[in-house]
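Team,

Forwarding the record for the chain on the shared tracking sheet. I've put the sequence and predicted structure together so nobody has to dig through attachments.
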Amino acid sequence: MKLHILGICGTFMGGIAALARELGHEVEGSDANVYPPMSTQLERLGIALKQGFAAENLMPPPDLVVVGNAMTRGNAAIEYMLDERLRYVSGPQWLGETVLAGRRVLAVAGTHGKTTTTSLLAWILECAGRAPGFLVGGVPANFGVSARLGGKPSLTPPSASADGSPLSRSAGEGRSPTPAAADFIIEADEYDTAFFDKRSKFVHYRPTIAILNNLEYDHADIFPDVAAIQRQFHHLVRTVPRSGRLVVNAEDARLAEVLAMGCWTPVETFGIDAGDWRARLTAADGSSFVVAHAGRELGEASWSLGGRHNAMNALAAIAAAHAAGVEAATAIAALATFRNVARRMELVAEHAGIHVYDDFAHHPTAIATTLAGLRAKVGAARILVGMEPRSNSMRMGAHADDLAPSLADADAVVFLKRPELPWDAGRIVDALGGRGRIVASVDALVADLLAQARAGDHVVFMSNGGFENAPRRFASALAQRR
């Protein structure tokens, strides 16, 4: 079958393309901006890429058009597709019907930490010999690809009881092991599916095990309030079978409210200060912690990541893997070799004692926890931040009041206010009390940070967009200055 994917260079749709190619389909796609790293990954797979969304890109017509959720009415390719009555489907629906059906799905949902937790869970199952399939909203360094189908089914692994203890039989006493569905780990996004399907993507995935990592207000362009997001999360809860497992953040009151709407699946909770699964930090920066379950310490994890938020992500992944039959000791050991996804506090360079990081920042809570983790690691060293408010919610000003407090651990902030930003960024800078300044271009932002940076500093570029390659431009300028 020949598939044309509209919006192919997004991380999710690029993953769809990789899976379709692995299934043996002829795959091509188009996007407004064909850019790395996804374009590089797709070209390696032999997938033809077309720039822009001209109607001609769908000529001759493919057997099926897979539509990304960034596509809207009025787009030339979409209008041609509808006028010509081409067969079309959303990415999540294609994934659910073509790849996930018949597999045991482990889904990772939450406002924050989805990509890291999904990558962690995939790596834990890989280390356990499961060869899982996965689709991640990024490229996990341990795998080098954002998506794969995974290995063949193996004998049924032990499931886990409601109290988390492994069972030798998942359904029925005295049953012999039978061929099991292969594991597939999916990053389960609450954003809408497509212009013709306004449900959250994750309702298409039908997981057996689902992580509910956290829940805050976000995506102000499609959700009027947090209650609307909670309803979508409850739609996900409704799809998890009673033979499955919900792994839920015990410290999140909004998730407790979701479960109070109705829950038909065994629940295990996790948290630093509460929950069935706990982490006791043994390093202030979160780079090591003891994992406990039901009050019993199971082992100490040491890894390259830091921050309380990442310890929580690890707990969620360990608990979900345990529900899938992986021993906690195996999961804890896997953390030592875990390498995170690009742009999650990625150290891109170090020149003259100045460390340069690229971080996918999309929400004030994520910004605050990321900087708090870095502060715990670097102590009194200066932290300089280059900030671009890039997500739809940020650009709409939905998080404006929370931005300055989220930057409390930064010693200096250079804030990019593009001309099209519709709200006054001056109040953010004023609230920073002399630690912030506004610039109108990436060139000016890089120059400003260069003028401030000195040996021992940690410079963090925070944006969930391309940021015009600002971190690497800054690093290159640093190297030349040296």
